[in-house]
Design goal:
Layout lengths: L2 H34 L5 H5 L12 H32 L4 H14 L3 H15 L6 H25 L3 H9 L4 H29 L3 H4 L32 H11 L5 H36 L1
Helix pairs in contact: 1-11, 3-6, 3-8, 4-6, 5-6, 6-8, 7-8, 8-11, 10-11
Main location: membrane
GO molecular function, one term: phosphate transmembrane transporter activity
Membrane topology: Multi-pass membrane protein
Length: 294
């Protein structure tokens, strides 16, 4: 058998494996959407959940998911941006930076339940925050920070060294070159990683069961004072998210229409994660074209 036939067979095998993986993923997504979309309507998306009655919604859980996501990104994005800039532009090649990168790799592979237990011990118990949005956001920061940091570092390293030389040749300091030349050039990759990280956070459940809590207290959407316990903006209240709600509905079995609620919530979660991924690709390509044409 000559090399051309071997190459064709190997290529066909690789295409076949890829097709099987895509088919499995597409089948799972299609199954979830097929079961869940008929249960989605405006009342389902806006009404609060009901425990022992038929007809509950996911309004509060959906709000909690987005609010927790925003708080987490406010905390984690600046930290990961600073860490990525340091590792890419300033860190020297020595045992310390090797140790930091190894630590980042280890943290990025930790199971989310371990991060949740860590958050429970540190933020819920020791810090005294209790089951709250801030406890969940801090735990998710540890969960998402390694991936965001690595994404920022790789995006900055992808910028050609001549861009840095051009900035320095124009009389800019090293810091000004990084901020005004390198970071804007790497912005498409950084933004793509941030949005993909947001989708990962939005679908997280295990880490939040032990930190943000498993209940969704009634919220007064006319009260926007973050100091009031019933205010949606209060970061020290419990906040059951959409992913936690799906787990809770299936584990407790206290809802008469639990299967329908679970299917609808799962479809909403899948659609939201798909939207994050599509948005990341769209904005990444849009910004890349804008940067290259400028």
């Amino acid at each position: 058998m000559n090399s051309k036939k071997v190459d064709k067979i190997a290529t066909g095998v690789l295409y076949g494996i890829a097709a099987i993986i895509v088919l499995i993923l597409a089948s799972l997504i299609a199954y979830i959407l097929f079961r869940g979309i008929p249960n989605i309507n405006w009342e389902f998306l806006t009404q609060p959940a009901k425990t022992f009655e038929v007809g509950g919604g996911i309004g509060i859980q959906l709000f909690n998911s987005f609010y927790l996501l925003i708080i987490t990104m406010i905390i984690s994005v600046p930290i990961s941006l600073g860490a990525g800039i340091y590792l890419s532009e300033y860190a020297k090649k020595n045992w310390l930076t090797d140790f930091i990168r190894t630590a980042i790799e280890i943290l990025s592979s930790l199971p989310s339940v371990v991060v949740g237990l860590f958050g429970f011990l540190v933020f819920v118990v020791q810090a005294g925050f209790g089951f709250s949005i801030i406890s969940g956001a801090l735990a998710l920061t540890f969960f998402n920070l390694p991936l965001l940091t690595r994404n920022v570092e790789e995006s900055l390293k992808a910028v050609h060294y001549t861009q840095r030389e051009a900035g320095l040749a124009l009389g800019l300091s090293r810091w000004e070159t990084v901020i005004k030349v390198v970071v804007p050039e790497a912005l498409p990759g950084i933004l793509t990683g941030v949005i993909l990280g947001a989708g990962r956070i939005f679908g997280e459940a295990a880490a939040l069961i032990y930190t943000a809590g498993q209940s969704a207290p009634a919220l007064d959407f006319t009260d926007w004072n973050p100091m009031n316990i019933s205010s949606p903006l209060n970061i020290f209240r419990q906040a059951e998210t959409l992913a936690v709600h799906i787990w809770k509905v299936n584990s407790e079995g206290t809802m008469p229409d639990g299967p329908q609620v679970s299917a609808g919530a799962s479809a909403v979660l899948i659609l939201a994660v798909l939207l994050f991924n599509i948005l990341a690709r769209f904005l990444g390509k849009r910004l890349h074209k804008k940067m290259t044409s400028a």
